Amino acid sequence: MFEKYTDPQTYAKIVDWPNVTAMWRNSVKTYGENLAIEDGTSSMTYAELDARAAKIRGALKEQGIGRGDRVGLFATNGCTFVCAYLAIVTAGAVAALLPPQLDGMTVFGVSRMFGLKLLLVEDALKAKLPAELPVKVLDAAAEGEPEKAIEVEPAEPCVIMFTGGTTGRSKGALLSNRAVMTGTKYGCYGIREIFEQRYFLVLPLTHVFGLIRNLMAALYTGSALHICKNNKDMFREIAVFRPTVWVVVPALAEMALNLSRQFKRNMLGEDMKTIICGAAAVAPYLVREYHKMGIDLFPGYGLTESANLVSGNPDNLNRPESVGLPFPGQELKLVNGELWLKGPNMMDGYVGNPQENEAAYEDGWFKTGDLARFDEDGFLYITGRIKEIIVLSNGENISPAEVEARFNVLETVQDSLVYAENDALVLEVVPRNAVLLAMGKEDPTAFLREQLNEVNRTLPGFERVSKIIIRDTDFKRSPSMKILRNQK
Amino acid sequence: MNREEIIEKLKEIAEFTVQDPSILAKMDETADLTADLGLSSVGILYIVIAIEEMFHIRMDDVSFGEFKTVGDVADYIEKKLGK
Q1: Nearest-CA distance A203 → chain B (Å)
Q2: Complete domains list, chain A, with CATH
Q3: Cβ–Cβ of B46/A453 closer than 8 Å?
Q4: What's the confidence (pLDDT) of residue A166?
Q5: Is B59 an interface residue toward A (CB < 8 Å)?
Q6: CA distance A395 to A99
Q7: Fewest CB atoms less than 10 Å from the CB: which of A26, A123, A449, A480?
């Protein structure tokens, strides 16, 4: 179905690889001298990246890491991350990708839950971690005698990725080599020019969209990947690197569009031809406006649990509202409007979380929690979400319960509710008036607001609320006194 | 560039990030970046990039979270411009 959207010779090169090592060996053999990655500090060809990964595999072996062992990777975006990730998975081990904004105690808990045998950690992040964790700092000392890559069975595990949870706790989705490679292959469909491109990365590599559609698709296709380490510098770096493909969330695509308008020039540069846009709903407006600039913006739909993209929209101009056609090899069905999935790209479950696994599957189908429909030509449309998790247009997944818990710590707060409004988080608070008034403050409401602002400032940027409403009535509640989220 | 011109330029930038015109109309030096302007994380990123572009400065030595009001931002820009 996707064949007609791609040059035949290019399409023939989109093949199955049984594991990451097999794909990587082919890329090194075919594109050895091509630039593979750069981050403003380092740059490496495919051959150089291969040599570096071999040394890190050597260090992993010295640490007793072997096939199937789970290794945490706690690092910010950069060449160092890519080298370590590639080394772990081509050693036949499993890379648990830990978002660098996690605090030390969370990493500690996750290490236990995931059964991590070792953590590879960027030097700057080491201070956050408790001393009892088995840590190896990612520097020259993390390199040993070059060790060969090994090929594992497609069903053997490859990565553990973080994802938002329905019960307010984050989970780790376990993806096999088959899932990762299928997801990577899917990312190559539907675009006319896909091999030997110049990719620009702004998404976190610990996010499935950054890892699979951005990094893995770049490495699969012999493309160069520029890793932007500070998003505020992205347009300066774009002017130098001149990317052809940008994988991005809608909010950043819209930001680039607005900046282009404000400064009356195409901020993405004249070489940019393709934007892959997803991780949140894509406004048709973006498809149309980018088309006017000579750039094709393709909406897509995917999940962490599906190793990224389930569908992509090659017919973007005619059906900009659609997230596209499902990629081949999957099964999709609608049950009471909810999209259920099966396929070689699907995860093997959440690690150490039987309760979530029980809730996520039915008769072998993964229940996405997304409401969807198909049109007469088989194009998919996402119409809403069943789950409570808030997904902002910048792709951030917010668990409202996690944010509320931070404000509920204040004794002046009786209860709170976080939701999204105009793509920003809003906090509503019911004060504990008895406590508040007993404090004898001249302006109790102003005092509470300042307390809330203080808590807000301590939150990670993506969890910070943009608006605070102090209510003079309680929330609507269920008989068991739970807040009715949809009936504020 | 005097302070009034800096504030005017900040208003030009805010036009692309603050959706509610009534908020924009009352935006002055005392406006609180979070409580009054309701900036999202991408809105803040937009403002930083646009300030660097418009005033030809680099904001590498500061986190935008350190600014509380529009006036704080103007102070920083004035300092960077050598006023």
Answers
A1: 13
A2: 3-190+202-224+303-385 (3.40.50.12780), 399-470 (3.30.300.30)
A3: no
A4: 38
A5: yes
A6: 14
A7: A480
Burial of A277 (0-12, 13-18, 19+ CB in 10 A): buried
Contact list, A263 vs chain B (CB under 8 Å): 50, 53-54
Q: Is A356 exposed, middle or buried (0-12, 13-18, 19+ CB in 10 A)?
A: buried
Q: Which domain holds residue B55?
A: 3-80
Q: Cβ separation of B49 and A396 shorter than 8 Å?
A: no
SS3 A227: strand
Contact (CB, 8 A) for A329 and A346:
no
User: If DSSP codes are grouped into helix, strand and coil, which group holds residue A149?
Assistant: coil
d(CA B73, CA B6): 9
| Separation between Cα atoms, residue A450 and residue A326, nearest integer Å | 49
The contacts found for A98-104 with CB under 8 angstroms, 24 or more apart, are: A98/A72, A98/A73, A98/A74, A98/A162, A98/A206, A99/A162, A99/A204, A99/A206, A99/A207, A100/A74, A100/A75, A100/A76, A100/A125, A100/A204, A100/A206, A101/A460, A102/A74, A103/A128, A104/A128, A104/A129, A104/A130
Query: Is residue B19 less than 8 Å (CB to CB) from chain A?
Result: yes
- What total number of domains does chain B contain? 1
CA distance A232 to chain B (A): 6
Q: Which long-range contacts (CB under 8 A, 24 or more apart) does A451-454 make?
A: A451/A410, A451/A412, A452/A407, A452/A410, A452/A413, A452/A427, A453/B34, A453/B35
Nearest-Cα distance to chain B for A211, in Å, is: 21
Token pair for A278 = 């997803």
CA atoms within 13 A on the CB side of A451: 19
What share of chain A in percent tops pLDDT 90? Answer: 72
Q: pLDDT (tens digit, 9 = 90+) per residue, A160-218? A: 998 854 344 678 999 999 999 999 999 999 998 899 999 999 999 999 999 999 999 99
User: What is the ipTM, given to two decimal places?
Assistant: 0.94
Mean residue pLDDT across chain A: 91
Minimal Cβ distance to A462: which of B17, B38, B41: B41
Chain B residues in contact with A468 (beta carbon < 8 A): 35
Q: Report d(CA A317, CA A286) in Å as an integer.
A: 10
Chain A contact set for B66 (CB, 8 A): none
Would you call B53 and A235 a contact, using CB atoms and an 8 Å cutoff?
A: yes
Name the token pair of A80: 């160092």
CA distances from B51 to A237, A266, A307 (A): 17, 17, 37
